[in-house]
Design goal:
The complex is a heterotrimer of chains A (304), B (249) and C (553). With 249 residues, chain B is an alpha/beta fold. Chain B contains six helices and 13 strands. Chain B is globular. The chains are: A alpha/beta (304), B alpha/beta (249), C alpha+beta (553).
Chain lengths: 304, 249, 553
């Protein structure tokens, strides 16, 4: 069996989520990768465990229509076609599946065998094990569930592919980068959230922001902090706010009410800082510091 | 131009899902069911196009058992002009949904199919893309802004790290993201009026589409509970562990 | 068809007219709706329900005596009414901290507690079924719409005004603002359950309580558990009194096995309790640890949580249930039979009787359905409540043991026909002792397996509540709260609220403040009842706010 992985680059490097998808694909057999545009080709060739890089310079905008058509034309050589469960993967791979009339499988978190997969449903409140009878399996995989392949160590051959003619039905106009230096809460790799323990709005900003800056983190808030006016509604993490699942979630001065936990429990690594050793947040935290956040946060900023 | 809005009846988003004791699925008996929230947004966008005179008819369609007509009544109470129930008691996967919707699209000839980016039950996020592929139409997924002009539609899409703007020729499939709009309430008079709007029922197995699934649900389980980790004494120790053990910074 | 409303905000409101508008889709409202259309299929009947669907706000035990259902639908079995679990075995226990004393020969000693022939049901499920029957009969049911105000013209209730939607926390209109409508009605039936907000207004406006004793309420808090099939005993019914409540507090636990491996467990605490340190929620939690209850939960998982106040006062506390343009039914008036621990059959019966009186008033074009009272007095409902009238007040008067002894005598010897009537001396808001005069109660910590804290519990009520709306729990005077609630009673609302709505918070060095987490509210109405100075007013939030209890509740 051979798998094909649609990979993405960022600043000349291959995105970690794509490297996780490659790791997942390696469970099926040989792995080829396909990359669009002209960035990150050198980095792609060095990826560990990749047999061949298919380089498609013409599709630099990664429009779903021609990309899915190209993938469909390649599909007969592959048992599995994968990508990260990124906005690009989720845009293109289901369209590919539509062309092939196969049922795609989104957000895979575990591979049981070549046809059986585990994926979250109901916003992560349940895990479904599903079995595919399609001859080509089309999957997007959750980055946080698979250890990424190494950036170096491989020496894949690079093959340039011509893109099929575009049909003119869709065209790329522009990309508007997020203006703020701070990433958006739902897509941030690191989130630091504050609760009532910060005591007032000015502490909320003056203590959380320096740490967030160091980590490139988004800032979230508990409902109590929002209710107390420390932070605007958009920052609320939890059942009634935003559901986040970053690589690293740092909860500061919030007790971890169940509604809050519902919004962040799928984070890969959770750190809790709280004065109360019985706070429920410690029950889900991988690392905890029982201590005064007014001392811990400045120290953390210095140590980073 | 017609706008077709496929809507799905799902467990209401306020309900905490409960995995059945036998692992066969998530309990849906006796819990409140509602229109998928993303579909409400897609419907709202269709209604706004009609209010701007860019569309002249909004048609809601759903697939499911007889009771699924509830969400069609809701759609019509929000403002859809008429509705179609494709009736089946079978569990059908998104691929089959796309195949069924294709038949309806070919019959109704809408200029836009406006649908939610994903259903909050199976979270598959695939039906719109598959339908677009099968129709050979362009797609604007995860839309946060939709502007129709001169037989084209400009779609702002929520992508990792920003907003991508595409221009699509019509007809096209658009899938709605959370920030596209704030759906309206169904008012009492409109709920009353909706009871008199036309609702057509079509048997799914009369449409010449194979309803069998390619993806079998083997079992459903509760996610493993997180367990408490370690308490560290100092900030230095924490940073060290995050770097070397957890490898997140 | 628009005209200015009669409320202070004077918004232009759409109007619609019906023969009858019913507020509340519980057992009495649905029964009344069904009866109206059964008797006169030409009537237009509109029923409002503030929950997102019929059943969404229903909490009850429940053991159902099927008597009224049989009157309403003699063919209820063929129609598939959800009465699936006949009572099979019954226990009444007097608890001490470690042991349980079963009351023997229950059907002799307390014949009203004999549950043979009754069914353990989910009232939420029964109401959903009644809703289907009502719709099939042509009743127009609108869930997700609250009756926010009475629509009064020329001293007569002429319908209700539904709640406005789309107002933000500060009272400003949001882009999706949708004003409520005037639903005109020739007759309005208020069936909101205990302490309904429109019923409260009707009682005050028309002085309906002038000849009634104060109503006394209980707070019922309930959990539904799913347990392993091998431990399930369908139809097993257990009630307890005694521990853990002090002898001045009326109440106890119930536990019913029903349905598919489900156990309904709940605890009712009378809201005339005296000790401000008492927490009905914690009493409910710790009772599960008693050996008479604990084994029932073994290997199970808790799946639903909810709470609701009930009217316990009985016949002495009934208001005059008729006012110009409408009537009160069910627990809105207070037809529950507390000694029997049952209110569904009585509430449904009041719905039937009210419907008959309303039909007569409509036929004769009278503004008041004044035959309601006579019809009540000549019904079995009245006899039943009359016979039960002395039991509940005997507990207020003589405490737990005295009340239990009296009840046995009243039931066995006098069979409810004692030549005297005991009274309810005070309203529930007037009973608290000052905090420094009452013993603090040391409740055990939740273990997360059998016992839980409030936030985890409320999570299982599936509450929907748009947080950007005005706070629907209105504290009229914060200085009164500070002086009385905080100063004298140590903020009892932070303990009696089963949903953790009320918290006191002290900022550094500042005085304690009241924080109202309105989004946690399960609509039990206890704060409106128990607040010492009646300083908290429970108003309807946006329609479809509040819990979403699934079938099983």
């Amino acid at each position: 069996m051979t798998a094909l992985v649609l990979i993405e680059s960022e600043h000349g490097k291959i995105r970690q989520a794509s490297r996780s998808a490659l790791a997942a694909a390696a469970q099926f057999g040989d792995v080829d990768a396909i990359i669009l545009g002209n960035e990150g080709i050198d980095a792609a060739a060095k990826l560990a465990g990749v047999r061949k890089i298919l380089h498609v310079p013409a599709l630099k905008s990664a429009l779903a229509e021609p990309t899915a058509a190209l993938l469909a034309s390649l599909s007969s050589s592959y048992s599995h076609i994968l990508s990260a469960a990124s906005s690009m993967g989720k845009n293109i791979l289901p369209r590919l599946a539509g062309l092939l009339d196969v049922q795609p499988i989104s957000d895979v978190v575990k591979i049981n065998d070549e046809a059986t997969f585990v994926r979250p449903i109901y916003a992560g409140n349940a895990l479904a094990t599903v079995q595919s009878s399609d001859t080509v399996k089309v999957l997007t995989v959750r980055g946080s569930s698979f250890d990424p392949v190494a950036e170096e160590g491989g020496s894949a051959s690079v093959e340039v592919l011509e893109a099929p003619a575009e049909d003119g039905k869709s065209s790329f106009l522009r990309l508007e980068q997020t203006e703020s230096d701070r990433p958006e809460l739902e897509v941030a790799r690191v989130v630091i959230s504050g609760g009532k323990g910060l005591k007032d709005e000015s502490n909320f900003h003056s203590l959380l922001e320096p740490v967030a800056d160091k980590l490139g983190a988004a800032i979230g808030a508990s409902r109590a902090a929002v209710d107390s006016g420390f932070a605007p509604n958009e920052m609320q993490v939890g059942q009634t706010g935003k559901i986040v699942a970053p690589e690293l979630y740092i909860a500061v001065g919030l007790s971890g009410a169940i509604q809050h936990l519902a919004g962040m429990k799928d984070s890969r690594v959770i750190v809790a800082v709280n004065l109360d050793p019985d706070a429920p947040i410690f029950k889900v935290a991988d690392y905890g510091i029982v201590g005064d956040l007014f001392e811990v946060l400045p120290a953390l900023e210095k140590a980073l | 131009m017609k706008v077709l809005v496929p809507v799905k009846r799902v467990v209401d988003y306020n309900i905490k899902p409960r995995v059945a004791a036998d692992g066969s699925g998530v309990e849906t008996q006796g819990v409140k069911m509602s229109m998928n929230p993303f579909d409400e947004i897609a419907l709202e966008e269709a209604l706004r196009l009609r209010e701007k005179n860019q569309a002249d008819e909004v048609i809601a369609v759903t697939i499911g058992p007889q009771v699924a007509q509830d969400v069609l009544r809701t759609a019509m109470a929000m403002g859809a002009d008429r509705a179609i129930l494709i009736r089946t008691d079978a569990e059908i996967e998104p691929r089959v949904v796309a195949n069924l919707l294709k038949v309806i699209v070919e019959r109704e000839n809408p200029g836009i199919v406006s649908m939610g980016k994903q259903a909050i039950d199976d979270d598959m996020n695939a039906t719109g893309q598959m339908l677009a592929a099968k129709l050979g139409w362009p797609q604007g997924t995860f839309a946060s802004q939709v502007t129709v002009a001169d037989s084209k539609v400009e779609v702002a899409r929520e992508v990792d790290g920003g907003t991508e703007v595409l221009s699509l020729s019509l007809p096209a499939v658009i899938t709605a993201d959370l920030r596209l709009n704030e759906p309206r309430y169904a008012t009492l008079p409109n709920i009353m009026k909706a009871r008199k709007k036309p609702l057509e029922t079509i048997e799914a197995d009369s449409l010449g589409v194979d309803l069998t699934s390619h993806l079998k649900l083997v079992s459903v389980a509760e996610p493993p509970e997180r367990t408490a980790g370690v308490i560290v004494e100092t900030v230095e120790e924490l940073v060290e562990k995050l770097k070397t053990e957890a490898k997140v910074i | 068809m628009t005209q200015p409303s009669n409320d202070s905000t004077a918004i232009e409101r759409d109007e619609m007219a019906f023969d009858v508008v019913i507020v509340g889709g519980g057992p009495s409202g649905l029964t009344a709706a069904i009866r109206l259309r059964q008797e006169n299929p030409d009537l237009s009947v509109c029923l409002l329900e503030k929950g997102s669907e019929i059943g969404a706000h229903i909490v009850s035990g429940a053991v159902l005596e099927p008597r009224t259902l049989e009157e309403l639908f003699p063919d209820w079995k063929e129609r598939g009414a959800p009465l699936k679990t006949p009572v099979s075995d019954e226990k009444l226990l007097y608890l001490t901290k470690k042991s349980a004393l079963p009351i023997p020969a229950l059907h002799m000693l307390m014949p009203q507690m004999d549950n043979r022939g009754n069914y353990v049901i989910s009232l939420g499920e029964l109401c959903r079924w009644l809703g289907e029957q009502a719709e099939a009969l042509g009743v127009e049911i609108y869930p997700g719409f609250s009756g926010a105000d009475l629509f009064i013209e020329d001293g007569k209730v002429c319908g209700v005004i539904t709640g406005d939607m789309g107002i933000n926390r500060d009272g400003q209109h949001k882009p999706d603002f949708t004003p409520g409508m005037i639903l005109r009605a020739k007759q309005t039936i208020l069936s909101e359950g205990a302490r309904g907000s429109l019923s409260k207004k009707a009682m005050a406006t028309f002085d309906l309580r002038k000849n009634a004793e104060p109503q006394t309420f209980g707070l019922g808090i309930k959990e539904v558990w799913e347990i392993p099939a091998e431990n399930h005993r369908p139809g097993f019914v257990q009630h307890s009194f005694g521990w853990p409540l002090d002898t001045h507090t009326y109440g106890g636990a119930f536990l019913y096995h029903f349905g598919e491996n489900l156990v309904a467990y709940g605890f009712i605490t009378a809201l005339d309790y005296r000790n401000p340190w008492l927490s009905p929620f914690e009493e409910m939690q710790r009772t599960k640890q008693h050996p008479a209850f604990k084994p029932h939960f073994e290997g199970g998982r808790r799946i639903i949580y909810g709470a609701r106040a009930i009217s316990e006062g009985g016949i002495q506390s009934l208001p005059h249930p008729v006012f110009p343009g409408g009537v009160l039914t069910g627990d809105s008036a207070g037809f529950l039979n507390m000694p029997k621990i049952k209110g569904i059959h009585t509430s449904m019966k009041s719905g039937i009787i009210a419907a008959d009186a309303v039909l007569e008033a409509l036929k004769n074009e009278q503004p008041e359905a004044d035959s309601y009272m006579d019809r009540l007095r000549s019904s079995w409902l009245w006899q039943e409540l009359y016979a039960a009238r002395n039991i509940r007040p005997s507990f207020s008067r003589w405490g737990m043991i005295g009340g239990a002894l009296y009840s046995g005598i009243d039931s066995m010897i006098f069979r409810g026909r004692a030549p005297w009537t005991l009274h309810h001396p005070h309203a529930d808001n007037a009973t608290l002792l000052p905090a420094d005069k009452a013993p603090k109660i040391d409740y055990p910590k939740a273990d997360g397996k059998l016992t839980f804290n409030r936030p985890e519990s409320v999570f299982l009520s599936n509450i929907s509540h748009d947080e950007d709306q005005p706070v629907h729990l209105q504290v009229a005077k914060m200085d009164v709260w500070k002086e009385v609630n905080l100063g004298r009673f140590a903020a009892p609302e932070s303990r009696y609220c089963p949903a953790g709505v009320y918290e006191t918070l002290a900022q550094d060095g500042e005085e304690e403040q009241l924080v109202i987490n309105a989004q946690n509210c399960v609509h039990c109405k206890s704060c409106d009842i128990k607040d010492p100075e009646q300083n908290i007013n429970w108003c309807t939030p946006e329609g479809a706010s509040g819990p979403n209890y699934p079938v099983g509740m």
